[in-house]
Design goal:
With 401 residues, this protein is mainly α. It has 16 helices and no strands. The longest helix has 86 residues, at 260-345.
């Protein structure tokens, strides 16, 4: 068994033997044991001990909010976030911790800042960028009230907000926040008097940045240029990039390298700026060409669709005309057949209209066929039919409806 794990289990057994449940010392040892299991990658066991520790703390404090419990809830959220990569569950515990901290008047501001920031990065991972912005802004508001807050902390929040806005395709807002972050970071870099490190928690939008502040600024310039490109402001973006690049160049030139390794590093950094700039411009050209190609393709498809629509309308019109002609032909054929029979046979029929082909023809046209005409005429007074007056006959037909 791992030495650290074995020690943690032994201390837990001693604490249980010495103190009555529930007790703070036992709760502490439960959490320590969870850490030991975490370190040997036994996450299910670690989770079991973490939850037992928090449950005991809640029992000790009778379910009332306490800074100790809030801290452990936040740590459990970190466990879910970093080790299990279960951002939804991490968010749950981060929020529980925040609720508890907000109910305690003595909660340090930095603890609230951490809670807001943890919730923000969780929402960022869950692609809920609107909520990520809300909580990161809350974190930023509190950071500004801390007298000795590091400039990098403020800049990190500004950058995180800018990255979320970029994900929402709100490029103007993104540009505003990232430029503010850039200006703060450049203040740090150009002073050459800082030991601040720009590596933050995994999952934070700025995690990809390494310890070198200069490389961090280089990445920010790339973010900014991306926004300018998205806003179709390449010329303005190129100018902004170039001006900031020149400013950094001056800073590098005024700094006297202490040794050859540092000098080579500065030369490499300058080359990186040029590379990123050229890559960004090339990427914009490619995107522009792709967009133009897509627009041309869409235009072609639109023309084809219009042509198909026109052709389809012509075919439909032709079909409708053929259908109308077929109906008319059928009616004519039907009427002609009846009329021929009436004329040839010279028979006296009980239905008055059958004895008068011309009247039959008129009525059949009015009611849609000979069969309908025979039926309708049988319900109309013979005097009206024999009058041959179209207005009287029409009125009689309408009165039947």
């Amino acid at each position: 068994m791992n030495r650290k794990l074995n020690k943690a289990l032994n201390q837990l057994q001693k604490a249980k033997a010495k103190y009555s449940l529930p007790h703070k010392v036992i709760a502490k040892n439960l959490y320590t044991t969870g850490n030991a299991y975490r370190d040997v990658n036994n996450y299910p066991k670690a989770l079991k001990y973490y939850e037992a520790s928090i449950k005991m703390l809640n029992s000790i404090y009778n379910g009332h909010p306490h800074l100790h419990t809030a801290k452990k809830l936040n740590e459990l959220g970190n466990f879910y976030y970093h080790k299990l990569e279960n951002f939804q569950e991490a968010l749950k515990y981060f929020k529980e911790g925040l609720r508890m901290r907000l109910q305690i008047d003595t909660t340090p501001i930095q603890d609230l800042v951490n809670s807001f920031n943890n919730i923000a990065v969780s929402y960022y991972q869950l692609k809920n960028y609107k909520e990520a912005i809300y909580y990161e802004k809350k974190s930023l508001e509190l950071k500004k009230t801390i007298p000795d807050i590091q400039t990098a902390d403020i800049a990190n929040s500004l950058l995180a907000i800018g990255c979320s806005y970029q994900k929402l395709e709100k490029y103007q807002e993104s540009l505003s926040y990232i430029i503010k972050a850039l200006n703060l970071f450049q203040e740090i870099v150009t002073s050459w008097e800082t030991n601040e490190i720009f590596v933050v928690s995994e999952g934070d939008p700025t995690y990809q940045i390494v310890n070198a502040p200069e490389a961090f600024i280089l990445t920010l310039l790339s973010f900014i240029l991306t926004n300018y490109i998205a806003l179709n402001c390449l010329e303005e973006g190129v100018k902004f990039f170039h001006d900031k690049y020149e400013l950094m160049n001056q800073s590098l030139s005024s700094h006297s390298p202490q040794n050859m390794m540092e000098k080579e590093g500065l030369v490499l950094l300058t080359a990186m700026y040029k590379t990123v700039f050229l890559e960004a411009v090339e990427r914009f050209k490619t995107q522009k060409e792709q967009k133009q190609g897509q627009e041309k393709q869409q235009e072609t498809f639109a023309k084809i669709r219009e042509q198909h629509k026109i052709a389809a309308e012509k075919v439909l019109k032709k079909l409708e005309e053929e259908q109308t002609k077929a109906k008319e032909a059928q009616h004519a054929k039907e009427h002609k057949g009846w009329c021929n029979i009436l004329y040839l046979n010279k028979i006296e029929y009980d239905n008055t209209i059958l004895n008068h082909p011309d009247i039959l023809k008129y009525v059949s046209q009015a009611v849609g066929g000979v069969s309908n005409a025979i039926d309708v005429s049988s319900r109309i007074d013979d005097e009206i039919l024999l009058s041959g007056d179209s207005e009287f006959i029409d009125a009689a037909i309408l009165s039947l409806n």
